[in-house]
Amino acid sequence: MYPGLPCRLGWCALALAVCHCSFSATPAGVAPDRDAAVQDAATHDAAGHDGPAGDDATAAVTDAASGCPASYTLKFHGHSYRPVLEGAYPSVVASCHADGQYVVAINDSNENTWALGQLVSSNNFVWIGLHFTAGTWTWDDGTPLGAGFESFGGPPPTSPADPCVDAHQTDGAWASFPCDAPHPTLCECNGP
After folding, report:
1. CATH number, domain containing residue 86
2. In this structure, are residues 5 and 22 in contact, taking their beta carbons and an 8 Å threshold?
């Protein structure tokens, strides 16, 4: 924000040098209408992002047709993905969440094979968005593991020493693993 300019930042993607600003119709030195200020507070968060206060999805530039960030260029079964370089599990989760998205949730064996084939890993392991929290296996998007697809070498561990899950790129098998290990992953967006 630059003093003296009648522009308030609505949203901006510096990497793409795209900026959308809202201009005030109130002349300099004139007090703005209180109702307009209340309406403005309801549609812009403290950081100046358009939308409801605290809406993380507005932080990323999105493809207007799908609602997914433009960087999500990998496509599979109606979903969009982007790769994340090797990092500890908390780092890759933070990268996905910064886009308003989540670490890949594997729904079937085809997606398991496809997702693992999209990444280059120095050790042949990649993070998937499954973790053990409060006594249950939960995907990063918030859904429980449930009775759907899983690729543990047996039933999922009930008290794992390591709460994060990696997948081996060669055979697709999942295993609980220390969360500080450096693996790549995919961020996923529900949309083409």
Report:
1. 3.10.100.10
2. no
SS3 content of the chain, % helix, strand, coil (to 5): 20, 30, 50
Nearest one of 31, 61, 63, 37 to 49, comparing CA atoms:
61
Reported as type and span, the H/E element at residue 41 is helix 34-43
pLDDT digit string, tens, across residues 23-38 = 223 333 333 332 333 3
Q: What is the CA radius of gyration of the chain?
A: 21
Give counts: helices (H), strands (E), the chain. 3, 10
Helix (H, G, I), strand (E, B) or coil at 109: helix
Mind listing the pLDDT tens digit for each residue in 43-60?
A: 333 333 333 333 333 334
33 plus 79 within the same structural domain = no
Domain check: are 24 and 82 in the same one? no
